[in-house]
Amino acid sequence: MTTAEENKETVRTFVEQAFNEGNMDAVDEYVAEDFVRHDPAAEDVRGVDEYKEFVKMNRTAFPDYHESIESMSAEDDTVMYRWILHGTQEGEIMGVEPTGKSVEINGMVEMRLEDGKIAEMWGTFDALGMLEQLDAVPEQIKE
């Protein structure tokens, strides 16, 4: 069984390699085959292949994607962290065509690890804040 500190290091390394560097081999290395990503605003992402597509989608939308982990805590098999994403939108995201605008987005993630691999995660981020920075908030929401 891995320790909480080892799990934190796994998550840190995964974020750096997969999201910040775009290394899809890191998804194979750090994500369990039966992985599930839960998001209150979207359908679950299931399995390594679907998660690779999720990572690629984010890196296509923001080719200079850089997620910094601002704080992290862990207990047993669970790691929670707060992050800030900096990036420039050069690809479509959430139905918004490329704007060339830079964003700073905040979010939080909880990951459950099993045998040293990320098995399940729950995430949320400031989607409205991102849309505001992209000047893409629908008029009916602004009112």
Number of domains: 1
- Alpha carbon gyration radius: 15 Å
Instruction: Give the CA-based shape.
Output: globular
Strand arrangement across the biggest beta sheet: 2-1-6-5-4-3
Q: Please indicate the percent range of residues in DSSP E strands (runs of 2 or more).
A: 35-45%
**Secondary structure: helix percent:** 25-40%
Describe this structure in words.
The protein is built from five helices and six strands. By secondary structure, the chain is an alpha+beta fold. It has a six-stranded mixed β-sheet with strand order 2-1-6-5-4-3. The protein is globular. 21% of the residues are buried.
Strands, helices and their partners?
Elements: H1 4-20, H2 25-30, E1 31-39, E2 42-46, H3 47-61, E3 66-75, E4 78-88, E5 102-114, E6 117-125, H4 127-133, H5 139-142
Parallel strand pairs: 1-6
Antiparallel strand pairs: 1-2, 3-4, 4-5, 5-6
Q: Features of this protein?
A:
Nuclear Transport Factor 2, Chain: A, 6 strands, 6-stranded mixed β-sheet, 5 helices, alpha+beta, 143 residues, globular
Q: Concise description?
A:
This protein has 143 residues and is an alpha+beta fold. It has a single domain (4-138), classed as Nuclear Transport Factor 2, Chain: A, CATH 3.10.450.50.
